């Protein structure tokens, strides 16, 4: 096993107070509460106010993580923000967060790996810590997806929500990250995309008319690839550590669709009661998803000392990531 030197000191999360229910969506697009629950498991999701920025949510989650870790902002060496919905294309959301936290000694950069982003960022933080470059690293997964969701597209707008989650990592702590696995498959980059707003297609009147500034998704293909790649990623990280599934106390998967999560536990023949879900309340919050779920797991004291826990996610890119923790 590698990586006994990086551990999680504490976590935090933030959900906006405004709740968007399936009944609300019934008034916005042609859909029904029953259809959404049956096909996705989602009952409601949180949506931030117009003036509540992605960086504001990130800061709320970060403050809680810092408090729970007993770390001051000035002690941070690095802040990594994983997001696909930055406040602005530049500067990075991590720099905005660094400024708002007054983390004056921290370097800061954003990491874009969509829904796998939080685990990608934890993997990156572990590498920085174990190389001896940095001691205390703040990792945040945060999204204001409501700004990029096409609220006229019933096949995607029902899925997504806003929120943020954060952890502080440091050297030689308990709660170690034992193994990590990250992969990408750019040949599937069209499955989930925001076509306009980058340098390829700057937003103009034509793009606004085509609604290409919003998220586009091939739902069925994404579903299948998500099940396959997350199942493989769980096994990969467990095998790396020479453990077996029966050693795992809890899997915390990306909350994309309850049926995807159920299909993964079926394929693995892993008890569904050992798979954490909050999708019914949060929807898919992309890079924030695993981070928020992880914080809930800690708050609810679901895991105990020395438990093995697997985090796993899949997202646009496509990307896939998993991580094994010993609590
Ligand atoms: N309400 C009612 N009907 C809807 C609907 C909605 N919100 N969205 C789609 N439909 C309709 C479709 O138009 C289609 O109708 P048709 O048969 O007359 O053409 C029918 O429901 C079935 O659509 P389909 O796309 O086959 O449904 P599905 O079972 O694949 O569920 C998703 C759609 C989006 C819920 C599902 O594919 C999914 O969750 N995919 C993965 C998405 C994901 O995880 N993305 C993020 C990855 S990180």
Characterize the structure shown:
34% of the residues lie in helices and 23% in strands. With 327 residues, it is α/β, with parallel strands linked by helices. The strands form 4 sheets. The protein has a 5-stranded mixed sheet with strand order 1-7-6-4-5, sandwiched between helices. Strands 8-13-12-11 form a 4-stranded mixed sheet, with helices on both faces. Strands 2-3 form a two-stranded antiparallel ribbon. Strand 12 and strand 13 form a beta hairpin. The two termini are 15 Å apart. The model has no long low-confidence stretch (mean pLDDT 96).
Q: How far from one another are the termini?
A: 15 Å
Instruction: Please state the structural category.
Output: alpha/beta
Order of neighbouring strands in the sheet with most strands: 1-7-6-4-5
> From N to C, what is the helix and strand string?
EEHHEHEHEHEHEEEHEHEHHHEE
Largest sheet descriptor: 5 strands, mixed
The proportion of residues forming helix, as a percent range, comes to: 25-40%
Q: Which word captures the global form? A: globular
Number of helices: 11
Strand percent estimate: 15-25%
Number of beta strands:
13
Which ligands accompany this protein? coenzyme A
Q: On the 0-100 scale, what is the average pLDDT?
A: 96
**Radius of gyration, in angstroms, nearest whole number:** 19 Å
Give start-end ranges of low-pLDDT stretches. Answer: none
